[in-house]
Amino acid sequence: MNLRHLTIFKTVCEEGSITGAAKTLSMTQPAISHAINELEESVGSPLFDRVSRKVVINENGKFYLSKVIPLLELYQDLESYSGSLHFQAPLRIGSCVTLGSYLLPQAVSRFSLSNPDTTLKVTIDNSREVINKLLKNELDIGLVEGVISEDRLEKIPFSSYPMAVICAPGHPFAKRSAQPVTLDRLIEEPLLLREQGCTLRDTFDSALSLNNLSADPLWSSTNSDVILQAVKENIGIGVIPRIFADDSVKRGDVVEIEVQNLDISCMNHVVFQKDKFQTEAFQAFINLVLFD
Questions:
Q1: Which domains are assigned to the chain?
Q2: What is the pLDDT of residues 141-164, one digit of tens each?
Q3: Ramachandran region, residue 93 (left: φ > 0; alpha: ψ -120 to 50; beta: rest)
Q4: Distance from the CA of 58 to the CA of which of 73, 155, 231, 271 falls in 20 to 30 A?
């Protein structure tokens, strides 16, 4: 039994005769009869009653037809996707929290306008987890910060941003504009930092390590805006991307602190597996991030 047998069986049922099916399928009547006989042998039961040299579908045939019709419809549906399946499959995007906050929503919106047939499924996590998901093929494209050492991944830099150390206007550091704060003095303060595994945190910890220092933060958060709000309440010193602090600094809600030997920034990358099959939607999303 194969798809040819099922198609012939369905056509005989629809036409009501071997002759009609032969004409519809552009086949000979003996070929149609032979295919029906083969199908009945495979099924183990006659599907038609032979009455006065005519074929009449019996109860077995009716039951079998009820199973065959949805199967053939499904096959036809699958055939309709030929050549365009990559437009129908969702594109799985992963992003670190920072890029997911200020870049990804606009990128998804612009992509959807020009690629309405492609669904984007988005995962927001820290850079380490996005990388892990890419390696396990749970994501197609990642937007991540910082250094990426995994050789199996293609890494394309597209932008960077500096980090800012901020405090409340009432904090003593806010009045030291003429004298930068030293790193060892900075870590004596209550620090409000991103979570471990986040590139921002890893970059900050690496800068401290180069000076034989380490941080024991009072707060650890996956959200830079939470840190910003806590700084406004003078709970501690925050380290967040400057893009999140700029407006608050301009309004005077927080003050950016100059710290000696601490000039750190994060490079942003589009990341994907080197051997990844690149659909048109895949390439369109990457080009949008790199060039728009």
A1: 3-80 (1.10.10.10), 86-158+267-291 (3.40.190.10), 160-265 (3.40.190.10)
A2: 999 988 788 889 999 999 888 999
A3: beta
A4: 73
